[in-house]
Amino acid sequence: MTSTRTSGSRVLRGFESYLRERFAAGCTDAAVLAGEITERGYRGSAKTVRRFVHSLRTAQKLQPTPPAAPTVRQVTGWLTCRPDRLTDEDSRSLDEILTRSTALTAVGRHVRGFAAIMVERRGHDLIDWMSEVDGAGSPALRSFVAGLRRDLDAVTAGLTLEHVSGPVEGHVDRIKMLKRQMYGRANLDLLRKRVIHLE
After folding, report:
1. Does residue 95 sit in helix, strand or coil?
2. Distance from the Cα of residue 121 to its chain's centroid
3. Hey, where are the domains in the chain?
4. How far, CA to CA in Å, does 97 sit from each of 52, 72, 106?
């Protein structure tokens, strides 16, 4: 039995590289592979081919599964997140991605530059940042800069002054909610009373 198996393996040896290539390409049916190598001159048994294909399947199962590539959403989150809030694993993953892409490295630098201007209220640095993006920024960032230019004074004020419109926007939202609740049910006098007593 052992000698028969050894002689079968010896006959198959000249076709092993071909079988490995076909297996890696997705053809894992032993009968099909046996037929293919028989046409190429193989004179051994189909059983020997089945044993060899079984060993390839076993080796494939034992190989560790490579980690999944990060999604676009994950990478975007890493780029827009404050660096000190990233986990060690996320920080390593981001560093690996940035070392492979100079374009993404530039995007990350510009995004973090704008975040620093926003957090530190350095609106006076906005013009320099926009000029840098115009010169070497990605198309998406250049489009963003074009939008900023359309209302540059308001954007600069928002990135410089401590005043915010949040409370006002909150009141506007509550008034809109009252209008929706009362639509078709009450007149302006009742709406006025409810708005006055909104607090």
Report:
1. helix
2. 29
3. 2-62, 72-158, 166-196
4. 39, 12, 12
